[in-house]
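To: structure subgroup
Subject: Chain for Friday's discussion

All,

I'm putting the inputs and outputs inline so they're searchable in the archive.
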Amino acid sequence: MQYRRLPSPPRAVNFFRWVLTKRVEFGSSAKDDKSERREAKVRHVLLIEDEPNIVEALSFIFLRDGWKVDAHSDGANAVATTVQTAPNAIILDVMLPNRSGFEILEELRSLPDYKDIPILMLTARGQSKDRDIAMARGASQYMTKPFSNAEVLQTMNALVGHLP
């Protein structure tokens, strides 16, 4: 078996981002057509979150568990990114730049391909009225920050199921 040595990352601080780019560069198992990706039962999560530290932490735990991870940080085009990446689960923040997570959730639920996709609302807003709004608009689960990494992973695995 021949091994290919990867170049060193530019800085230790950017190591995680470097790993993600190398994963894409050297071949991800995801296919180009969204229906084929869904049929293949690849666990694929889209993180719609604007806080880089949270994106980095969640990406790490999901990648370690064998998930494919995409991240997006702007509410304005989050729905278009969701359609483009075709995940089989979404983690959505309520407070995003340019558009509310509640509005994004409502629009996703209005699309036929996304009416049943698991969506975990992960937010700092822990009031019961916010939870009620999220659940009324179609959230699968609602968790508040700070959160347990293990609990987020366990919740997403339960929502998506243990796919091969």
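Points worth raising on Friday:
The chain has a mean pLDDT of 80.
The longest strand covers residues 44-48.

D.
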